[in-house]
Amino acid sequence: MYSNTRELLAISRERGLALWQVILENEQQLHEMTETQVFELLAQRYAVMAASASKALEQPCRTAGSLIEGITQDQYAYAKKGETLCGPLINRVMARALSCSEVNASMGRICAAPTAGSCGILPAVLISVSEQLGCTSRQTLEGLLTASGIGAIMMKNATVSGAEGGCQAECGVAAAMAAAAAVQMAGGNPSMIMNACALALMNVMGLVCDPVAGLVQVPCAQRNASQAVNALLSADLAMGGMVSIIPLDEVIEAMYRVGRLMPYQLRETALGGLAATPTGRAISNKIFGGPL
User: Fold this and answer.
1) pLDDT by residue (tens digit) across 142-186?
2) Which residue of 123, 137, 164, 289 is 20 to 30 Å from 270, comparing CA positions?
3) pLDDT tens digits, residue range 59-102?
4) Alpha carbon 117 to its chain's center
5) What structural domains and CATH numbers belong to the chain?
6) Based on C-alpha coordinates, what's the Rg of the chain?
7) What does the H/E/C string look like for the chain?
């Protein structure tokens, strides 16, 4: 039906449909499912997201090495005080993103959207935007479907693997997906959705994957929080009228090329970046009794 975002947008314009409607038709054709069945599956995935986004808010999850154990609880407590620089929405978004990361690091159940390492970004944005705007369950799932369609195109034409494309491919794609969902839920048009995705991915271009001690905790959790915020600011930029000078498909292609150019030390091997700092090595030695 479509193979890239340009074709998806063209179909949307030609038929006067929202992006999620075109994506829905594509899913129905690919999997021979009814609309009801598609939305039932979306609801199941969203339930997992919601559970992981709340689980660590007030009760820490045990994690290997305790690198991020309890960080969600601290952030959520700070958010509830109301005396923050970024305001309650942004701080709730960060806390929810951190919760998913903490649950993931404790071997809990998460929804890898698009990966386990970036599992907190889309849930945090979906839940918080839905709450902020008073969206219905259906509107929230339409946002999730929009994000899913964008993510599928990126997986097809590039990568979402940190081992292949760095963290820009994991957290960056997740941020683009979340930005798409946010614009859809806020009533933005298809062009705004595409621009928001491009801006979100552009903002994180070149980000390496350098997990300390090889664990999906630091800086992964912190990047989940930051990229959830990236998604929201990109959505607002697009809805404020900003147009990405570089079309989304070209941004996706550039991200993929940049990822391929990264040395292997910066692609999830824990041999470069923060993982290779003296402190990063010391943490690895303490947890595993020697370097990875």
Assistant:
1) 999 999 999 999 999 999 999 999 999 999 999 999 999 999 999
2) 123
3) 999 998 999 999 999 999 999 998 999 999 999 999 999 999 99
4) 9
5) 5-285 (1.10.4100)
6) 18
7) CCCCHHHHHHHHHHHCCCHHHHHHHHHHHHHCCCHHHHHHHHHHHHHHHHHHHHHCCCCCCCCHHHCCCCHHHHHHHHHHHCCCCCHHHHHHHHHHHHHHHHHHHCCCCCCCCCCCCCCCHHHHHHHHHHHHHCCCHHHHHHHHHHHHHHHHHHHHHCCCCHHHHCHHHHHHHHHHHHHHHHHHHCCCCHHHHHHHHHHHHHHCCCCCECCHHHCCCCCHHHHHHHHHHHHHHHHHHHHCCCCCCCCHHHHHHHHHHHHHHCCHHHECCCCCHHHHCHHHHHHHHHHHCCCC
25 CB-contact burial (10 Å; exposed 0-12 / middle 13-18 / buried 19+): middle
